[in-house]
Amino acid sequence: MTRDSHLLTARSSLARAYVQTGESAKASPHLQAALPADEDGSLHSQLARAYAANGKPQLGQEILKQYQKIQKVRAAEREGVGKEIPITAPAK
Questions:
Q1: pLDDT in tens, the chain (92 residues)
Q2: Which CATH number fits domain 3-72: 1.20.58, 1.20.120, 1.25.40, 2.60.40?
Q3: What is the Cα–Cα distance from 69 to 82, expressed in whole angstroms?
């Protein structure tokens, strides 16, 4: 991990702590900053909920759309992992 990825991980952890303590307004900027490290969409989902809780439903809907895109990509990746690849004999 690079220094920047450690910072993003720390910011996402701080944001999650704020969310858990009901301080979603404080969580929002940290979640926003950590979005580049969001591999599974969970930070997008949390940010959408934080925006909604802070009276910014429009922003929440935009982030929710990004979350849904991430989920579709992840589902496609999982589906592709289970596919069999035919193995053929080498050409003579």
A1: 455 677 888 999 999 899 899 999 999 999 999 998 888 999 999 999 999 999 999 999 999 999 999 999 998 888 877 666 677 788 87
A2: 1.25.40
A3: 21
Tokens, residue 5: 């990825």
Q: What is the 3-state secondary structure (H, E, C) of 8-43?
A: HHHHHHHHHHHHHCCCHHHHHHHHHHHHHHCCCCHH
- For residues 41 and 28, what is the distance between their CA atoms, to the nearest angstrom? 15
Q: Rounded to two decimals, what is the model's pTM?
A: 0.76
